[in-house]
Every structure is written in C-alpha cells, then in structure tokens.
C-alpha cells in the first residue's frame, strides 16, 4: 500500500487503481484494484483498514474529493499559522506595554516618596 504522492491526486486515475482514505486517520492511498476488499494495515497509523470495492467513477469522485479536502486542509493550516503569528505579535506588544506600565508605576512611587521627603504634610 502506497500513500498518494503530493498534495493533489490526479483525476485521471488508471482503471487498475483504487483511491481511498484510511478509516482511522484519513490518510489517502492508491492501491491496485486487485486489492479491493482486502484489509491492510495503514502505514501511517498502523490500524487495519479495508480497501473498498469501487467502480472507476466512484474512484474518480473519491480522488477529486480527497484532493479538494487536502487543499482545504492546507488552506486552513495556512490561515491558522497567519492568525497564530498575529496573536504572538500582539502578545509581545502587550508584554511590552505591561513592562512600560510597571516602570511608570515604580517611577510614580519613587517620585511621590521624594516629594513626601521634601514636603512633609
């Protein structure tokens, strides 16, 4: 059993191949049609998964769906990475402002203490 290469799967699937996803981890695979109905161990998660018995039309539909889902997952991950970057930038900025506020509070206390020492009430 071979994992499907690349992030997209060609729509022109040879008639002797079956494109399917592991029922446990959704890893996509392309196997020879002779393996239809066999139970194989997934190379990614190690769990047994059954090769479906499908027609060429269903195999092509599955390949298109898998390709589309992989594209959507890649796009989703890209957006998550972008948002995580923004959150990290804002967290750093927040920390800087908190340090600045702490410095100003300490300065205020020092100045008030100096003022109290010069001008007793």
Protein model, in words:
Strand 4 and strand 5 form a beta hairpin. The radius of gyration is 30 Å and the shape is rod-shaped. The protein has 121 residues and is α+β, with helices and mostly antiparallel strands. Residues 1-14 have low confidence and may be disordered. The chain has one helix spanning 56-118; strands spanning 2-3, 17-21, 28-32, 39-41, 48-50. The N and C termini lie far apart (87 Å).
What's the topology here?
Blueprint: E1 2-3, E2 17-21, E3 28-32, E4 39-41, E5 48-50, H1 56-118
Antiparallel strand pairs: 1-3, 2-3, 4-5
Spatial sequence of strands, sheet with the most strands:
1-3-2
Averaged pLDDT, please?
84
Coarse shape: rod-shaped
Element-level helix/strand string: EEEEEH
Give a brief description.
Helices cover 52% and strands 15% of the residues. The longest helix has 63 residues.
């Amino acid at each position: 059993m071979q994992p499907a290469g690349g992030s997209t799967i060609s729509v022109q699937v040879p008639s002797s191949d079956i494109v399917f996803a592991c029922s446990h981890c959704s890893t996509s695979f392309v196997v020879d049609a002779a393996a239809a109905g066999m139970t194989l161990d997934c190379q990614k998660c190690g769990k047994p998964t059954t090769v479906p018995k499908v027609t060429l039309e269903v195999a092509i539909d599955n390949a298109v769906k898998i390709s589309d889902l992989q594209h959507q997952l890649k796009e989703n991950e890209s957006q998550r990475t972008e948002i995580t970057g923004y959150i990290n930038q804002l967290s750093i900025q927040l920390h800087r402002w908190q340090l600045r506020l702490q410095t100003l509070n300490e300065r205020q206390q020092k100045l008030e203490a100096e003022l109290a020492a010069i001008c007793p009430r």
